[in-house]
């Protein structure tokens, strides 16, 4: 039996230095490899043409680049949204979504296959937890996004990895932009795909360090955003993190009765404890926090609840991001109508709580928030 090849994306730069030492190679070779992986984005060791041929061959005997099996991509929003489906070596599936805007590109990545948190409105939650991703599985999704963005640039657009265009705008006036106006760089990574990042904190943070590394992918802290269901220990840990990435907290309801009915996690860390921890986080870091609030018609979208929310958030350095619920087949829930969303927003704004409505991408291909479940793409 042959032993599986080790993934070069699983090595930190110091670990690559150690690996190269085993091949009696100087440390600068490790930096060359790191650049090839994360700047030149090669997908084959033989493409590392600045390495001696003999070293490439030796490395390739026991190593490969990447662990995810790419299944396919579907596109929407006039080719400005691309959702990829990947299979892990252990068979589970995960999804990532690349969103292009004229002035920037953002990738939404998964941190777990499935999720244990069981939020009643979320497609991923319905799967339960299948497994934690390794940090290099998280990084590889960003590498995919970078490669895809590069392949879409007009000069190299010969193999745009798209197979279907299921464009369908929603009523937020999102016209999806135009494919001629492509950003050059991937500047933003949001950890808002499948899974709860703080339930896989250490592997997730290792991925953050790789993405942030100026020798490699080099995404600034301001370009990194993590979303949590409200795991208090994770928020406390992030307050001590060495660089200021953005924090988004899924609140979705201003009181315990309602929040517990939507999110089982509220029985462990309730609204008061979550908000007290958030206030402490803000005091410690002096960073503004975002609260995500999914709007479900007739459930958590009344003006009274908006007023209660405004009360709870008074004086906080924060921002509320309203997300009209994205339908998940088989869930007996409704997406708030536009006038209810606007009315909710107005109550918050009148109370001087900053509030915006998220412009959704990828609804028509089930790539919007909370619609990722791995199995939504079926074979041709
Ligand atoms: N587990 C993390 C991050 C992934 S979910 C979290 O819960 O924060 C990313 C965001 O999508 C969260 O705010 C989540 O509540 C929201 N979401 C889940 N299902 C949704 C749906 N069907 N429509 C809109 N947003 C949804
Ligand atoms: Fe998990 Fe987030 Fe979905 Fe809740 S909303 S089930 S925490 S992925």
Describe the structure.
Helix content is 32%, strand content 19%. Helix 1 packs across helix 2 (27-38), helix 7 (232-239) packs parallel to helix 9 and helix 10 (303-313) runs parallel beside helix 11. The longest helix has 18 residues, at 135-152. The model is unreliable at 157-176 and 376-380 (pLDDT under 50). The chain folds into two domains: 6-64, DNA polymerase, domain 1 (Orthogonal Bundle), CATH 1.10.150; 69-365, Aldolase class I (TIM Barrel). It is built from eleven helices and 14 strands. By secondary structure, the chain is an alpha/beta fold. It has helices at 13-22, 27-38, 53-62, 123-127, 135-152, 201-212, 232-239, 256-262, 271-285, 303-313, 338-350, and strands spanning 6-7, 63-64, 69-76, 81-87, 93-101, 104-108, 112-114, 129-132, 188-191, 224-228, 246-250, 289-295, 318-324, 355-357. The protein has a ten-stranded mixed β-sheet with strand order 3-4-5-6-9-10-11-12-13-14, covered by helices on one side. Strands 1-2 form a two-stranded parallel sheet. Strands 7-8 form a two-stranded antiparallel ribbon. The structure holds S-adenosyl-L-homocysteine (SAH) and iron/sulfur cluster (SF4). Iron/sulfur cluster is lined by residues 115, 117-119, 122, 124-125, 195-196, 229, 370.
Q: What are the main properties of this structure?
A:
TIM Barrel; binds iron/sulfur cluster; 2 domains; 10-stranded mixed sheet; two-stranded parallel ribbon; alpha/beta; 380 residues; disordered C terminus; DNA polymerase, domain 1; binds S-adenosyl-L-homocysteine
């Amino acid at each position: 039996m042959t032993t599986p090849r080790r993934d070069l994306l699983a090595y930190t730069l110091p670990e690559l230095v150690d690996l190269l030492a085993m091949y009696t190679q100087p440390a600068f070779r490790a930096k060359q490899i790191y650049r090839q992986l994360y700047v030149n984005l090669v997908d084959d060791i033989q493409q590392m043409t600045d390495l001696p041929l003999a070293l490439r061959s030796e490395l390739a005997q026991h190593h490969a680049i990447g662990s995810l099996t790419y299944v396919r991509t579907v596109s929407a929003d006039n080719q400005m949204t691309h959702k990829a489906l990947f299979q892990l070596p252990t068979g589970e599936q995960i999804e990532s979504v690349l969103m292009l805007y004229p002035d920037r590109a953002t990738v939404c990545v998964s941190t777990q296959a499935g999720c244990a948190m069981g939020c009643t409105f979320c497609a991923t939650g319905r799967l339960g937890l299948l497994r934690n991703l390794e940090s290099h599985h998280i990084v590889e999704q960003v590498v995919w996004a970078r490669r895809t963005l590069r392949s879409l640039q007009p000069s190299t657009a010969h193999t745009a990895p798209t197979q279907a265009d299921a464009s369908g705008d929603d009523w937020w006036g999102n016209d999806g932009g135009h494919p001629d106006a492509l950003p050059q760089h991937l500047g933003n990574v949001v950890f808002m795909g499948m899974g709860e990042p703080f339930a896989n904190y250490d592997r997730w943070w290792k991925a953050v360090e790789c993405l942030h590394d100026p020798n490699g992918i080099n995404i600034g802290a301001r370009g990194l955003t993590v979303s949590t269901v409200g795991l208090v220990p994770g928020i406390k840990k992030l307050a001590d993190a060495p660089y200021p990435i953005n924090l988004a907290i899924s609140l979705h309801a201003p009181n315990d009765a309602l929040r517990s009915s939507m999110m089982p996690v509220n029985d462990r860390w309730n609204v008061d404890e979550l908000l007290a921890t958030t206030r402490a986080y803000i005091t410690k870091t002096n960073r503004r926090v975002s609260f995500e609030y999914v709007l479900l018609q007739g459930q958590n979208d009344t003006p009274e609840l908006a007023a209660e929310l405004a009360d709870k958030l008074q004086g906080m350095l924060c921002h509320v991001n309203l997300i009209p619920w994205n339908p998940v087949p088989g869930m007996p829930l409704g997406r708030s109508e536009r006038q209810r969303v606007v009315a909710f927003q107005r109550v918050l704004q009148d109370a001087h709580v900053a509030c915006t409505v998220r412009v959704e991408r990828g609804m028509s291909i089930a790539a919007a928030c909370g619609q990722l479940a791995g199995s939504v793409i079926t074979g041709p």
